[in-house]
Design a protein that fits this description.
Blueprint lengths: L26 H45 L1
Length: about 70
């Protein structure tokens, strides 16, 4: 087997950067985002953001409805 057939990662690659997350973000959330980014890249993060925006809209509407029932 020649060295070009090796399945080992090249040694000349820079080290993987640490995940970027604000300190006030729950570690589970940061881990989920970093995991999607690591596994699916930019496209996966874009899809995650799109889905999260829809979920946020639904959650805000539900919270608003709940607040309306408390005010009554």
């Amino acid at each position: 087997m020649s060295s070009s057939d090796s399945i080992d990662a090249p040694t000349d690659l820079p080290p993987h950067p640490e995940p970027i997350a604000a300190t006030d973000i729950d570690p589970a959330i940061a881990g989920a985002v970093d995991g999607v980014g690591d596994r699916f890249g930019v496209l996966g993060l874009e899809q995650m953001i799109s889905y999260a925006e829809k979920a946020l809209t639904v959650a805000r509407e539900a919270l608003e409805e709940l607040a309306d029932t408390v005010d009554e």
